[in-house]
Amino acid sequence: MKIIALPFAGGNKYSFRKLEKHVPPSIQWITLELPGRGSRFKESRLEDISLMIEDLLRQIKPHIEESPYMIYGHSMGTLLGYELTKALMQLSYKLPECLFFTGRGAPNKVTFTKKSTLPKDVFWKEVEEMGGLPKELLEYEDLLDLNYPILKGDFKAIEDYVFTPMTSLFPMPLYVCMGEEEIGEGPGKTSIDCIKAWNEKTDAPQKIQWMHGDHFFILKNPKEIVDRIVNAFHEATGVIANF
């Protein structure tokens, strides 16, 4: 059994290390990584969601042919998970047993103000206010300089994303979890309507939940969120994981 994970904007294959420590031995956690970051730092960055999906399709194919799997995504990773699953359906690839998304409302409801074109100092101020990066990273100027072009490019991809309606609903269960502090109205918040709109994306069971914390609640509560992800996998497959 495999959890295929897709990181947040600016993230890489190391972004979920806090979570991976709590995954039971019977499940393999695999974080996919886009070019221009982490171990793929020397590759050209992608600033278009459709090109990112093409890259992720090439990565995911060898991992899913022989094993039951689920897709987990946080923030930008949630958008990528949604579009990746659509692509898997269109190509008749083996589908995930379930989807688990955190930190983002449904793609047809989310609106973004342009941040990728802001001056560098204003950009980081906006990112901090919206909770768009773990606070630990915002404390190190060298890391900010290194991550600036990566995050800026990811934001551009999100801002330029054009939603297209699904030709058919997902056939697998869909789980959504949000941080309590990121739910609401106004800048940097996700409305209840935007979260509930996820229910329109599948004709299988859906579950919307929340946990204490801000946009990066997953890093502050790694064991709890992994327990929820694994339990979702268990519900979808009927296979009991050994913790």
UniProtKB/TrEMBL annotation:
Q: Which domain of life is it from?
A: Bacteria
Which part of the chain is the Thioesterase domain?
Answer: 2-229
Q: Which InterPro entries match?
A: AB_hydrolase_fold (IPR029058), TEII (IPR012223), Thioesterase (IPR001031)
UniProt-listed SUPFAM superfamilies: alpha/beta-Hydrolases
Its family remark reads: Belongs to the thioesterase family.
Q: What is this protein called?
A: Thioesterase II family protein
